[in-house]
Design a protein that fits this description.
InterPro entries: DUF5720 (IPR043778)
Protein name: DUF5720 domain-containing protein
Strand order of the largest sheet: 1-3-2-4-5
Pfam families: DUF5720 (PF18987)
Order of helices and strands: HEEEHEE
Radius of gyration: 15 Å
Oligomer: single chain
Strand content: 25-35%
Length: about 100
């Protein structure tokens, strides 16, 4: 009997078939996305070896609290990361700032 897949696994397969990218960090349907205090999702490039998150050259997705997002903005100002995409998160739903952002 074939193994049954969750709705999240099926959605991830369809996203990848449609050409979506897989990033380091949190997966698209990660449980962090649905945490009560999660307010932001960012996709960013790590620019330096001194970055507190990830390795230089990685493209990463993170679901963040308000405090985590502010810390990310500070790291961008310091030149450690470059935020490429941002979405507000409410009850697991993503609301992108612009329609042409990375997903």
């Amino acid at each position: 009997m074939p193994e049954r897949k969750t709705v999240g696994q099926l959605m991830e397969e369809m996203r990848l078939k449609a050409g979506a990218q897989n990033y380091h960090g949190h997966e698209y349907m990660d449980l962090e996305r649905f945490a009560e205090d999660t307010r932001h999702m960012i996709i960013f490039d790590v620019l330096t070896h001194d970055s507190p998150v990830g390795w230089k050259g990685e493209r990463t997705r993170l679901f963040l609290t308000e405090a985590g997002y502010q810390k990310s903005l500070e790291n961008q100002e310091k030149g450690h990361i470059k935020i490429l995409s941002h979405a507000k998160v409410r009850q697991g739903h993503l609301y992108y700032d612009r329609s042409d952002q990375l997903r």
